[in-house]
Design goal:
By secondary structure, this protein is α/β, with parallel strands linked by helices. The chain folds into 2 domains: 180 residues, Isopropylmalate Dehydrogenase; 124 residues, Isopropylmalate Dehydrogenase (3-Layer(aba) Sandwich), CATH 3.40.718. Helices cover 38% and strands 18% of the residues. Helix 7 packs parallel to helix 8. The longest helix has 17 residues. It is globular and about 60 Å long.
Length: 319
């Protein structure tokens, strides 16, 4: 994949994202790829000024006009009265148009773009129609096997089910889902990161045991691991979660597959804090999201940690 551009969708206009990118772009403006921000120029400029960050913005109409080592921006209309405000559904059309414009650009020249999106509010923007931006972009791109990868070069994790209520997790796990996710992730590492990896798989039940007649470990997880191992993938497990995330274990593996969201994201964030990024595998392009939400409590206070966006940009620029 020969990517030449990084598209940055600003996402929710009332969040910490303007502060995060302000901290980054005010210090760094030399890149291997061309940078294009997609969002409202007027609001972004006001927010950056309020936060005391300054870098030149090169306003363009087409991605073809983007200049290297410039912070290029394609303007998306957004009516606003305040520089920082409460999140509301008034931003929904604007956010939709930002994503729509980015996908139009990507579709016009496939293979040239990496997409980084700022945070959005699941409550006001997604409105329970989608469980996350991963699923939102999957539908918009007619993708059928999107996979969430929380990535750090030392250790990454991926849940088989994403934003699914706990009571529905067991019924959402099956052999085909585990197989397709693992194959997609293995291919991503091989083709994009040029790396052969060792994969650990966690069980669903405490200690990988259950008193029920049906054991997910025995009937679903272990047979799938055996199948994938026979297919040439270096995969091991199932392991009990309560003791897995200790140093002597995680040093042996590159990727940990969990059965549900918090089973793997909680230890991942505890270990790496914001030095990790959310990559969606299985889309027609590489999509990356910094590992933080809108965080409105810290909005406009200049106290936000830009580590995850820095990690995202470094990953995207060097891929």
């Amino acid at each position: 994949m020969n990517t030449n551009y990084i598209l940055i969708v600003l996402g929710e206009p009332y969040s910490i994202f303007s502060e995060v990118i302000g901290k980054y772009f005010s210090k760094k403006q030399k890149f291997k790829k061309k940078i294009i921000i997609i969002g409202n120029e007027n609001l972004l400029t006001k927010q950056l000024k309020k936060l005391k960050y300054n870098f030149p913005i090169n306003k363009i109409l087409s991605y073809k006009d983007a200049k290297k080592n410039k912070i290029n921006l394609i303007d998306i209309k957004f009516k606003h009265n305040k520089i920082f405000d409460k999140i509301s559904s008034k931003s929904n059309e604007y956010i939709t148009n930002c994503f729509k414009k980015s996908l139009q650009i990507i579709n016009s020249n496939k293979g040239k773009f990496i997409l980084i999106n700022g945070p959005v509010s699941k409550k006001t923007f997604l409105k329970k129609k989608y469980s996350g931006i991963t699923e939102y972009l999957s539908e918009k791109t007619y993708s059928r096997n999107e996979v969430m990868l929380i990535y750090n070069h030392k250790l990454s994790v991926s849940p088989i089910t994403t934003h699914v209520p706990i009571k529905k997790v067991a019924g959402s796990i099956n052999k085909q889902k585990i197989r397709s996710n693992v194959v997609a992730l293995s291919d991503f590492y091989k083709t994009i990161l040029k790396k052969q990896i060792r994969i650990a798989v966690l069980g669903l039940n405490p200690h990988c045991e259950t008193t029920d007649k049906f054991s997910e470990e025995e009937k679903i997880i272990y047979p799938t691991i055996k199948y994938l191992k026979n297919a040439g993938i270096k995969i091991f497990g199932p392991f009990s979660t309560d003791t897995f995330f200790i140093k002597k274990n995680i040093d042996k593996y590159d990727l940990v597959i969990g059965m549900y969201h918090d089973q793997v994201l909680t230890p991942m964030k505890t270990i790496f804090n914001f030095n990790a990024i959310n990559i969606t595998v299985g889309l027609p392009f590489i999509r990356i999201s910094p590992d933080h939400g809108p965080n409105t409590e810290m909005m406009g206070k200049n106290l936000s940690d830009p580590s995850s966006f820095i990690y995202a940009m470094n990953f995207a620029d060097n891929i």
